[in-house]
Design goal:
Elements: E1 6-10, H1 16-25, E2 31-35, H2 47-63, E3 68-71, H3 74-87, E4 92-93, H4 96-106, E5 111-116, H5 118-123, H6 125-130, E6 137-142, H7 146-151, H8 158-173, E7 178-181, H9 190-197, E8 202-205, H10 206-221, E9 233-237, H11 242-253, E10 261-262
Parallel strand pairs: 1-2, 1-3, 2-9, 3-4, 5-6, 5-7, 7-8, 9-10
Helix pairs in contact: 1-10, 2-3, 4-10, 8-9
The protein binds D-glutamic acid.
Length: 279
Amino acid sequence: MSDAPIGIFDSGVGGLTVARSVRDQLPRESILYVGDTAHSPYGPRPLAEVRRFALEVLDDLVAQDVKMLVIACNTASAAMLRDARERYSVPVVEVIQPAVRTAVTVTRNNRVGVIGTTATITSRAYNDAFAAAPHLELFSQACPEFVEHVEAGDTTSRELVALAEHYLRPLVEQGIDTLVLGCTHYPFLKGAISYVVGDGVRLVSSDTETANDVYRTLVRTGLERTAPGRPSYRYEATGTSAEEFLRLAELFLGPEVGSVELVETGTIPLPSAPRRSTP
Ligand code: DGL
């Protein structure tokens, strides 16, 4: 049992899709959310740089005594998952494995598409994760411009729909029956994506699948919150404008977001960061 918050992190607003699903499944849990807006987007950056930024944010979350870390970002998961599991003593949940597990069970024709940022797709993290299911054929597509549309609050413009056509049509032509939304920003674009791929393609979204994993991990490790009273939800951003992040968070999550604090990451020197003690 633990009344500490669950720490959830993304480069920006994408991880709010995961936070929202966690709130749906675990309404008594407190959440501390960080959007690393100072370094967003992660997608076009080299993986080593993403790894450094992500570890800074996770170190800061652990220093704020979260009871679990949720890497609500595919790009960061691709860049540093193994490091994170070794580095911290709290459980770490990420977004790639849960989505892959679901895709493997839902596909009927074994032709699966995955879309993500350039860094995620070029890291081949999904190819590695699907390696345990060699009977599947995987078709990957980077969708570099999707994130900017989400970060601008745009889910319906003609330009966005044309972009979705451009990115997704080749996957549809490959006969996929399942599409993994391998970026936590993309659930905000589900309307445009399913408009283009049609009803015949099942969308597997990291938000719900990851929340299922958070639930499982919490119950399995006995870390559920038992305190009476309402949980707390805190939102932090590392960029220069809390207002901008709040505006987007309210657009996507609703007015109850309330406020966003600006924080600086990297203030904790990495060598003294909390580490898992070796048994
Ligand atoms: N939402 C993130 C992901 O799942 C990253 C988006 C970005 O910053 O490029 O990959």
